[in-house]
Amino acid sequence: MAVCGWKRIVLKVGSALIAPYAAGCSTRYLLSIARFIAECRAAGTEVVLVSSGSVAAGRNAISYKQLPLPINVKQAMAAVGQSRMMASWAQLFDFDCAQILLTHDDLKDRRRYLNIDNTLRTLLANQVLPIVNENDTVATAELKVGDNDNLAAMVAILADADALLICSDIDGLYTANPRTEPDAVLVPQVSQITPQIYAMAGGSHHAIGTGGMQTKIQAADKATRAGVDTLIINGQKAATFDELLANRHCGTLFQRQQERLSAKKHWLRHSLKPHGQLVIDDGAVQALLARGASLLPSGISAVSGDFDKGDAVLVLNMAGQTLAQGISQYSALELSKIRGVKSQQIDTILGYCPSEVAIHRDDLVLLN
Asked: Mean of the pLDDT values across residues 302-306?
């Protein structure tokens, strides 16, 4: 049985948990987190890990004492620390891990967005743990506060996750700062994120962490609006993960504002302008309508329009009736070359095969 009923989660772990002593990586808090990830996978819940910590992990390798750290020093620390961080995670698992370095621009670009999506799907399908981090070594501007909190929300939306779990060093959102206000009370559930909720949050108090409760609420705001439940939990306590594995929510649960599937389907249906059309044969029609399958190149009879990979296209039957709209994995020119052929032939015809499908079922919405 999936943990808490989740089929797929994104788990965000911050620098304060990766390198709590600001002197390289430590397994002090990672052991219980790694066990949680392994138990989730064993229970049938897919996990995508978003891990901060490259700058903190590499900090003791670069001799620089003044604060704030200039961008070139942060980049050098990140260059050292990224491999250290991956090695620290990898030693805790008996399955393969994969490194994915992203920037926000990667998630805004149509082609790169699709490539990331395809990579995540392939890794998860092959039981590989994706470990995502901001690509700090090539940042062209200052590393922004809370980038990985917000990056985790964007990854959760991209990955069609059921839930986003953000690890903190306190139990969740409190009515005030619990370190300075003894009367502060934990907020167990938030149905809607309002200015009053933001007002409860303070900044980061940790010397090596860049995010605080503010950025975690920002991430929760993004994720819940897209239909992803979000929990802020205490990543320093092993008991936190025991509770979740026992199918009990802990920390602060930010409730999703709409159904996850309907959120994406609404976006596909109403937010994308189609740039072309694909006419499909009767076999492909049955596969789409009756089995909810992806659209394969072999089922495409005709291609029209001028569209690129990542553009929306309409899907029509042989009678000209519009059946669906989806995001094409190929350009019009590419699909014209591979229409009607088996997926195994794509590489021979094009010289490459980024995807075996023309439109993935997760990127397609029926219109009737």
From this structure: 97
